[in-house]
Give the backbone structure.
Amino acid sequence: MSHVKAGGTAKNTRDSPGQRLGVKLFGGEKVRVGMVIVRQVGMSKRGGVGTKVSRNFTIHADRDGIVKYTTRKVRTFSGRSVPRTEVTVI
Protein backbone atom coordinates (compact mmCIF):
# COMPACT_ATOMS: atom_id res chain seq x y z
CA MET A 1 0.00 0.00 0.00
CA SER A 2 0.98 3.56 -0.56
CA HIS A 3 2.50 5.63 2.23
CA VAL A 4 1.47 9.01 0.68
CA LYS A 5 -2.01 10.47 0.89
CA ALA A 6 -3.91 11.37 -2.25
CA GLY A 7 -2.89 14.83 -3.55
CA GLY A 8 -6.14 15.77 -5.24
CA THR A 9 -6.36 17.66 -8.53
CA ALA A 10 -4.97 21.07 -9.44
CA LYS A 11 -7.45 23.54 -10.95
CA ASN A 12 -5.20 26.45 -11.87
CA THR A 13 -2.93 24.75 -14.40
CA ARG A 14 -4.19 26.61 -17.48
CA ASP A 15 -2.45 29.69 -18.81
CA SER A 16 -2.77 31.53 -22.10
CA PRO A 17 0.28 32.70 -24.08
CA GLY A 18 1.03 36.41 -24.47
CA GLN A 19 -0.44 38.19 -27.49
CA ARG A 20 2.78 40.00 -28.49
CA LEU A 21 1.12 43.42 -28.58
CA GLY A 22 2.88 46.77 -28.75
CA VAL A 23 4.83 49.07 -31.05
CA LYS A 24 6.81 47.11 -33.63
CA LEU A 25 8.39 50.05 -35.48
CA PHE A 26 9.36 53.30 -33.77
CA GLY A 27 9.54 56.85 -35.15
CA GLY A 28 12.19 57.40 -37.79
CA GLU A 29 12.39 53.77 -38.87
CA LYS A 30 11.93 52.74 -42.50
CA VAL A 31 8.80 50.80 -43.37
CA ARG A 32 7.60 48.85 -46.43
CA VAL A 33 4.07 48.26 -47.68
CA GLY A 34 2.10 45.87 -45.46
CA MET A 35 4.49 45.84 -42.51
CA VAL A 36 2.95 45.90 -39.03
CA ILE A 37 3.68 49.15 -37.18
CA VAL A 38 1.54 48.71 -34.03
CA ARG A 39 -0.42 45.75 -32.62
CA GLN A 40 -2.98 46.88 -30.07
CA VAL A 41 -6.31 46.19 -28.40
CA GLY A 42 -8.63 49.10 -29.13
CA MET A 43 -7.71 52.43 -30.69
CA SER A 44 -5.08 53.73 -28.29
CA LYS A 45 -3.06 54.81 -31.33
CA ARG A 46 -4.80 56.15 -34.44
CA GLY A 47 -3.86 55.44 -38.03
CA GLY A 48 -3.03 58.50 -40.11
CA VAL A 49 -1.84 59.19 -43.65
CA GLY A 50 -0.08 56.24 -45.26
CA THR A 51 -1.49 53.64 -42.86
CA LYS A 52 -4.39 51.20 -42.70
CA VAL A 53 -6.13 49.94 -39.56
CA SER A 54 -7.28 46.32 -39.72
CA ARG A 55 -10.24 44.71 -37.94
CA ASN A 56 -8.24 43.88 -34.81
CA PHE A 57 -6.90 47.49 -34.67
CA THR A 58 -3.45 46.55 -36.00
CA ILE A 59 -1.86 49.48 -37.86
CA HIS A 60 -0.16 48.51 -41.14
CA ALA A 61 1.88 50.57 -43.57
CA ASP A 62 -0.01 51.48 -46.74
CA ARG A 63 3.11 52.69 -48.57
CA ASP A 64 6.89 52.76 -48.28
CA GLY A 65 8.37 55.50 -46.15
CA ILE A 66 9.37 56.50 -42.64
CA VAL A 67 7.21 56.07 -39.52
CA LYS A 68 6.24 59.24 -37.64
CA TYR A 69 4.33 59.59 -34.36
CA THR A 70 2.43 62.77 -33.50
CA THR A 71 -0.11 63.74 -30.84
CA ARG A 72 -3.52 65.12 -31.76
CA LYS A 73 -6.79 65.75 -29.95
CA VAL A 74 -9.67 63.35 -30.58
CA ARG A 75 -13.25 64.01 -29.58
CA THR A 76 -14.81 61.17 -27.56
CA PHE A 77 -18.42 60.01 -27.57
CA SER A 78 -19.23 62.29 -24.63
CA GLY A 79 -17.79 65.31 -26.46
CA ARG A 80 -14.61 65.55 -24.39
CA SER A 81 -11.32 66.08 -26.25
CA VAL A 82 -8.48 63.74 -25.29
CA PRO A 83 -4.92 63.51 -26.66
CA ARG A 84 -4.18 60.44 -28.78
CA THR A 85 -1.10 59.31 -30.70
CA GLU A 86 -1.40 59.31 -34.49
CA VAL A 87 0.83 57.08 -36.61
CA THR A 88 1.70 58.25 -40.12
CA VAL A 89 4.04 57.11 -42.88
CA ILE A 90 5.76 59.93 -44.74
User: Anything to note?
Assistant: The first strand starts at residue 22 and ends at 23.
